[in-house]
Specification:
Strand order of the largest sheet: 4-3-5-10-6-9
Largest sheet: 6 strands, mixed
Strand content: 15-25%
Number of strands: 12
Number of domains: 2
Number of helices: 11
Oligomer: single chain
Distance between the termini: 75 Å
CATH topology of the largest domain: D-Maltodextrin-Binding Protein, domain 2
Amino acid sequence: MDRINYRQLHQFWSVARAGSLRAAADRLNLAPQTLSGQIATLEQDLGAALFQRVGRRLELTDTGRMVRAYADEIFELGDALQAALGQARLARTRPLRVGVTEVVPKSLAYELLAPALALDPAPRLVCREDSLARQLAELALHRLDLVLSDRPLSGEAEIKAHSDLLGECGTAFFCTSELARQLDGPFPGCLQGAPLLLPGEDSLVRARLLRWLDDHQLQPRIVGDFDDGALMKAFGAAGAGVFIAPTVVAAEIMRRQQVVEIGRSEDIRERFFALSSQRRSGHPGVLAVTEAARSGLFSQQTIGPLRRRPGGKSTSGS
């Protein structure tokens, strides 16, 4: 016997369910003669009659009842597969609602979220920037699928959520070329007395930076601190002072802000987390963000090479 023709099997199944050749033909938009011919061909291929006429009614033969039972399973599974594919497509295209805490650099947020936009189909991205406390409240109400943060969910939090470490990296120091030429000596000693822009108090890296400066007995001149990292970079790009950013986005910052990297420290570590509710953690966009961050963006973070400040000496990667 040749392989079963599933189109003919579906036509047989339609007649068996409708109980009438004409009723099935109307549903399939076929002429009754065409449908009758297709079933006759299927019977010939199977080597057995599937229907017998009793008066004006069609009834299944023993073979027909067996084939009907298998057809029920085959086409019910087909319907289930179609429904599952439809749900998966809907899940991929539903909006990806992301909260970005104020301390996460905008350039890093873009790099982290880009893999979600590369999905086919890509979800519509809805971004909200706010404090971590307010973002967590929105996450608890399932108004957000994901929150990007520089810290994991604390044990005191009253919401059910996952904290996934996306990666960690060192910290790079930047300023304009003009300011770099004015700094005295190699990095990090050149920071002594240099104008410095600090991240806001809500940023974990602020405390690590201040501790690192104290360990190196450095006393820069603090000219401002900023809750908004983008505003800090804007002041830095205008020449107001030296500012910091994660090494993972150093090249992008130099390109966009037209600044130079004067040095970096792997001792000032920055960590970034994806916080997601248990109910929404299966969103394909969330999975794309977490997997790409671990396997790509943060996977090759190492201590940087020695760098040379414009007009100055080599800088240390310590």
